[in-house]
Amino acid sequence: MRVMLAEDSTLLREGLVRLLAEEGHEVAAAVGDGDALLAAVDAGPPDVVVVDVRMPPTHTDEGLRAALEIRRRWPDVGVLVLSQYVEKRYAAELITADSGGVGYLLKDRVAQVDEFLDALDRVGGGGAAFDPEVVRRLLAAHGARDDPLARLTPRERDVLGAMAQGHTNASIAASLHVSQSAVEKHVNQIFDKLDLSHATGYSRRVLAVLRYLGSEPPARESD
Q: Percent helix, strand and coil across the chain, each rounded to 5?
């Protein structure tokens, strides 16, 4: 894949450049701030951008704002966000987006090279990859609300949690060591118990994840 990096830590940035090159990816740009990333993408969009959350000049949310701008202007470019923190509002916006090619990993996950590369491949292939800890913290942020998941069995909650991380039915089956047909039955039970079996105008899978995170439905229709 053709990849662009935005990371203000020179050590981590150069480490990622070397790792990606060794894996056969083309690193088209490696920059230290969000504006430079946007300029690089504008000059020639890559397959995926990997972007830190907090970069110069204020070290607050420059990277996330750049990521959301890339999603708006170049929707075919995959976006993988890396962070030491869970920026809840932006993470929820990414995780509930009714589109593929997006991921959010904590930087600790980069040390697990296989997991990082798997996430990059999933995002580059139009899928999603969300750190389990990101999902957990988002759930904790919504813990005070009424729990719409009380009717789910522990296994169904496991399946829905994996859906929220961006996994397909096939990858959920592999991770839980069950058949894909069993996962499909669990997914249908989730839809029934969350009163989504007859939902129209939105993807039921997206609506289930929105319920899981305690969010509101998106403002536009999708297939």
A: 50, 15, 35
Query: In terms of DSSP H, where are the helices of the chain?
Result: 10-22, 34-43, 62-73, 88-95, 113-124, 132-141, 154-164, 169-176, 180-193, 204-213
Strand order in the sheet with 48-52: 26-31, 2-6, 48-52, 78-83, 102-106, 128-130
Q: Report the DSSP pairing between strands 26-31 and 2-6.
A: parallel
Inter-CA distances, 222 with 15, 190, 198, Å = 39, 20, 15
In CATH, what is the architecture of 2-144?
Answer: 3-Layer(aba) Sandwich (3.40)
Amino acid identity for residue 216 in this structure? E
Both tokens of 36, joined, read 């430079």
Q: Is the pLDDT of residue 221 over 60?
A: no
Domain segments of the chain as ranges: 2-144, 154-213
| Predicted confidence band of residue 46 (pLDDT cuts 50, 70, 90) | very high
Q: Between these two residues, 55 and 21, which has the higher pLDDT value?
A: 21
What pTM was estimated for this model as a whole?
0.66
Residue with tokens 């932006």: 90
Instruction: Please state which architecture CATH assigns to domain 154-213.
Output: Orthogonal Bundle (1.10)
